[in-house]
Design brief:
Radius of gyration: 34 Å
Structural class: mainly alpha
């Protein structure tokens, strides 16, 4: 007798046994006057909740503020190639731990060949929150030969670290040949609370690309809260935007000497 035949016969026996038991239990329950025996009643087994985790002490290490010695400078420079690859997150964390004294080394990565290296260097500077890196970031944002994604990110981080240094970059990027860069300038300008960005935004209202113009006028409304004429920007033409830009030009000429930026809006309190 083969093994497969044994398995088949065993299965048949089990099926027959299950059928016999299924037929016997209800009939036995009815004959004995205990029909409820034929019903399965689910039961909850006792369960103890897992113990609450104990409070763990804060073991985070604050960034260093001491100047780097020669060995630490060499170590920081050795981290630069690791900003792209399997150890990139570890390298970024090491720079954050080294703190502000490592910024002069880290900004060297902004000119390294790998695009991901440059992007990760910008992201690391954001985590380090060191305004001293803003001039190097602005240089990247203004570089016409750099990738648009990296230029946008450099501008965004520079605005977050020290917006007061950014208006010259906004002015230059607003005239860039790439509409993606012009849109980035129009969007980030709303976070630069400085009158110097208003002429750049007004100049973008008549942009050839409608989405650039819409972004610029939205930034103007947020910065100035000037109640301009209502226009349908979503279906506007180039000629429409040229005419509408003149309204903002006239308003700015009449008010630029005395205008003061209103305070930032505060989030509404929940009801």
């Amino acid at each position: 007798m083969t093994f497969d035949l044994v398995i088949s016969m065993t299965r048949l026996l089990l099926i027959g046994l299950i059928g016999a038991v299924s037929a016997f239990v209800p009939s036995f329950a009815q004959a004995s006057g205990h029909a409820e025996w034929a019903h399965v009643v689910p039961a909850q087994m006792p369960f103890d909740a897992p113990p609450k985790p104990e409070a763990a002490p804060d073991v985070s290490v604050p960034p260093s503020s001491k100047p780097l010695d020669s060995d630490e400078v060499k170590r920081a420079e050795a981290l630069l190639p690791l900003l792209e690859g399997k150890q990139e997150f570890w390298a970024m964390g090491e720079f954050v731990h080294l703190g502000a004294p490592a910024v002069p080394v880290l900004v060297k990565a902004l000119k390294m060949p790998g695009a991901r290296t440059r992007y990760n260097a910008i992201e690391t500077l954001l985590m380090m929150k060191e305004p001293g890196a803003v001039p190097a970031l602005i240089e990247v944002a203004k570089e016409p030969n750099e990738m648009p994604r990296i230029r946008e990110h450099a501008l965004r981080v520079a605005v977050r670290l020290d917006p007061a240094q950014v208006p010259p970059a906004i002015e230059l990027m607003a005239k860039d040949s790439n509409p993606t860069i012009r849109k980035a300038a129009a969007f980030e300008a709303r976070y630069v609370r400085h009158k110097a960005v208003i002429p750049s935004l007004i100049g973008l209202i008549s942009d050839d690309e409608r989405f650039v113009a819409i972004t610029a006028v939205n930034s103007l409304w947020l910065l100035t809260r000037h109640e301009s004429e209502m226009h349908d920007w979503d279906v506007s033409t180039k000629q429409d935007r040229v005419e509408w830009a003149q309204e903002w030009i006239d308003w700015w000429k009449a008010n630029q000497e005395t205008f003061e930026l209103p305070g930032p809006r505060r989030p509404k309190k929940p009801l």
